[in-house]
Amino acid sequence: MQTDLARVAEALRADFVRKLAMLRSQLADDVERVARAAEERAEELRVRLDETDARLSRAGEAHDELRRETDGGLRSARQAIARLTGEVQLIEGRLRMEHGVQPVDLETLPSDLEGLVAEVREAEEIRSGMLGEATRAAHRAALDAYTELERLIAESRGRALGASRALARARVGRRSFRRAAAAYRIHRGRWRARDAELTARAAEAAAAWTALDLDGRLQEQYSAHRGAGAMLELAAHLRGRVDAAVETHALFPAWFTITELGHRPSAARGGQWRDVATQVLLYRLTYGITHGVLALGDPPEGGRQAERYRAVRAALEQLAE
Fold first, then answer.
1. Using H for helix, E for strand and C for coil, what is the string for the chain?
2. Which of 199, 176, 195 is nearest to 187 (CA)?
3. Which of 181, 196, 267, 314 has the fewest Cβ atoms within 10 Å of its own Cβ atom?
4. What confidence tens digit (pLDDT) does each residue in 99-129 have?
5. Model confidence at 81: pLDDT above 60
């Protein structure tokens, strides 16, 4: 009986093992099939993504090229319109001059405003002697370096003296004596090297201190001067003259029209045109420019006037952008 049960159990176990092996084999086949399908699907998606990226890249390049062409066309059109407008206004100006119309006088001031011009010129004369921000910072840095060097010299001198006192107390040949002697040599050497560097920098530091002292006095003098307020009053008067000339369709002088200002303000940049025209007039009056063709005269070589020249020149160039 037990032998029969054993045979049955063994048969059941063998059948279970066989079926388990079959399930394992089927599961492995299913996993492999699913993996192959996933890889094929992933490869298909990768190819489609690459194709999509390529299409998007081509579309982006086409868009950029179209935008460049459009921008170039618009820029050319604006330039052509500006050129034609200038030519029409030039013809209009010539016709008006042939009929006796004279350019508007923007610079001759009434006697009650001559004082404003004098104050503005005095203030600019003071500012011309003031340091630029970069130069001022360089002088301050030179003085700071000199002061730091003085501190380091005092530190080296103090350590050298401390080492010499230790030498005086220590016995010759002892470790403390050798250590004090080494410290004295190091700090004495640093003291001498830094003192020599301080001597070499003395003239530069003195010049920096003198320049900063003068700059400080000029800043105080400029702050107390009425020139800044006078410049605002003069600019307001000149702006009013420009507005009146535009409102009455006056003929502007050649030195005015030959710049980016042209003969008339554009509708889109009327406010900017008005401000730049005022800057040009203010520059001419401040520095006594009387050139009949060059609105700002010849470029100055340097100083405060050169800074003003570059600022007004940049403002004019912005009108053409």
1. CHHHHHHHHHHHHHHHHHHHHHHHHHHHHHHHHHHHHHHHHHHHHHHHHHHHHHHHHHHHHHHHHHHHHHHHHHHHHHHHHHHHHHHHHHHHHHHHHHCCCCCCCCCCCCHHHHHHHHHHHHHHHHHHHCCCHHHHHHHHHHHHHHHHHHHHHHHHHHHHHHHHHHHHHCCCCCHHHHHHHHHHHHHHHHHHHHHHHHHHHHHHHHHHHHHHHHHHHHHHHHHHCCHHHHHHHHHHHHHHHHHHHHHCCCCCCHHHHCCCCCCCCCCCCHHHHHHHHHHHHHHHHHCCCCCCCCCCCCCCCCHHHHHHHHHHHHHHHHHCC
2. 195
3. 267
4. 566 788 888 888 888 888 899 999 988 988 8
5. no
User: CA of 20: how far to CAs of 14, 27, 31, 34, 170, in Å?
Assistant: 10, 10, 16, 21, 95
**Which pLDDT score, from 0 to 100, does residue 313 have?**
94
Place of tokens 């052509």: 80
